[in-house]
Amino acid sequence: MAMRKGWLSKARNELVVNAVAFQDHITRTMLQPDFSLTDPLWRCKRKAARSPQARGAEVRALWRQDQQEEREYVLESSCPPLTLAQKLGLVASPGERLTEDEWMQVKARSVHQGESAQPCAICREEFQLQPQVLLSCSHVFHQACLQAFERFSRKMCCPLCRKEQYETRLIHDAARLFRHQCATRIQACWRGYVARKRYKTLRKSICPKDKQLRRRFFEAKLQELNDSFVRYCHTDTEAFLSDINRSLSSSRQVFQQLERKTVSEPRENDWDRIQSQVIQRDVRDCPICLTALCSSSLLPEACTSTHGHRPTVLLSCSHLYHQLCLEAFEAFTVENRPSCPLCRSLYHKKLI
Questions:
Q1: For an engineered disulfide with 83, which of 25, 135, 214, 311 has Cβ 3.0 to 4.6 Å away?
Q2: Cα separation of 35 and 9, whole Å?
Q3: Whole-number pLDDT of residue 45
């Protein structure tokens, strides 16, 4: 009977110890470090406000840290003390800390899965240059996101695979990838700018093969020449235009004098040749009044016109007109010596 009572008391003591061990384990692992059993509302301690000098020192420290070479290191390298439940074997104790080779294997598995190239699984935003942490389960998160998840979930487990008691390592793979992408975009923009600038230069110097593009090319060239000519000419436009008119009139007079010197009066055999040309062309109407011509020597069958006999004139350029029509044309001509109404050449005339 005494042995039975001793056994029951021993079992009760062991049960009490196990309950206390479980409570201690839950308090340490499942709840926050700043959790107080005396505070039922679980209020977290507020951090004291930092002074501007402290914030400036922190910013300078971060700047110096960025200037230094990026290095990877394990966060919380010291192992937490074992709880009573872990010491008694009621709860599995955490394994040994990962070595550097094991961390390299975890990182290689994460790179193979493309964890750093994907958005953070908690906030669904790109990592960019923000600090990122690699878990021992090969999952990657923002450091701030993981800390917020641990604070609000009140336990330490991976948000994806739910693995507990993991280790974290600060890495910079996403930052390097983001810098590479930014450098690639900058190079692409610069190369595009250089290519477009070179293409515009080639378009200004090389004539295209398409008809419409060729026409626009020469129009642009002509407009450019015109603009440069107007830019460098005199500011007095009226005087400039009057100079052009005087030059044109003097040139016209010179050409007229040359034409008068070159045009000589045809001889008798030349008139016969001109008449044969008129007969070959078989001209029957006056080009001025558009009525039938009447010439007994050249066109005897055309003298049956109802307008009566009207004198006909043969020009040295082998054109026929009514005498009255040609005299009226000469009367309305401004030039001193008129030209042929058809071929615009100086002439000698003969009445036939």
A1: 25
A2: 33
A3: 45
